[in-house]
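Subject: Murein transglycosylase structure
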Amino acid sequence: MKIVKNALAFVGLLSLCGLFIFALQDAPTDENFEKKLINDYNVYALQIPENLDFAGEPMPLKNPDIHERMDRELLVNTYWQSNGLLMFKRAKKYFPIIEPILAKHGVPDDFKYLAVIESGLTNAVSPAGARGVWQIMKATGRENGLEINDNVDERYHLEKATEVACKYLKKSKERLGSWTLAAAAYNAGNAGVARRLREQNVTDYYDLLLGEETGRYMFRIVALKEILSHPAKYGFNFRDKDLYKNIPTFKVEVDTAVTDFSKFAQDFNINYKILKLHNPWLREPHLNNKSRKLYHIEIPKEGYYQ
């Protein structure tokens, strides 16, 4: 009887081990996703990768100060889970628009993560007056050819704003000598970064003593790059269908005034809200266009808003 009990216990133990191994190997599916969501929450200290870089420029992680600051941003962005998942969802929608524009201008692909920390890939508005995904100030936008007024604000036009960001970053790289400093200057300004380098007699971002925001800036970018590039490593579980998709559109050319965008939208079987979602740079319910400028208005293809 004792032998039978021991045998049964051994079989039970093998079964439990098998179930445990199966659970470890089981990828998120529709059937087990909710169960994992409830039961898989743990908090861990993170291992910082031995090598991290921005635009091919290495981060000096052997420096204990740099190591601790990188650890902070990885922890903050890993365990701010709701925000992290939103970044994965939005990146799927907006990175395919941003990436080819960066490539066209010869700006490293890593700068898409700068847009993530600037705005969370939303049309944000800062207290200082910056607007859009790239958080462009009015003067900078106008200097680089964007139309900005009460009627039209092209800082909210993702493609055009990305073009402006590329121009600014290339000028910063030329002036300051590295892509890391160019990224920092996007936050603190070219003159501000150049002055700090001169005052402190250093040539590298990681040797500068900076204020809180600019001092965290590159670490936040690299942290988001690392996490968004390796979701499973940092505990993010999702399916492709959980991510946001870009709605296909076609362009309608307009070179006259539009007196009522609500009626304009109805001509394409959509409403004013949907028109604005795809054209956030149109700031008023009408278009003045006294100069008869040619605009391209995005209209979603049929079947996506039913």
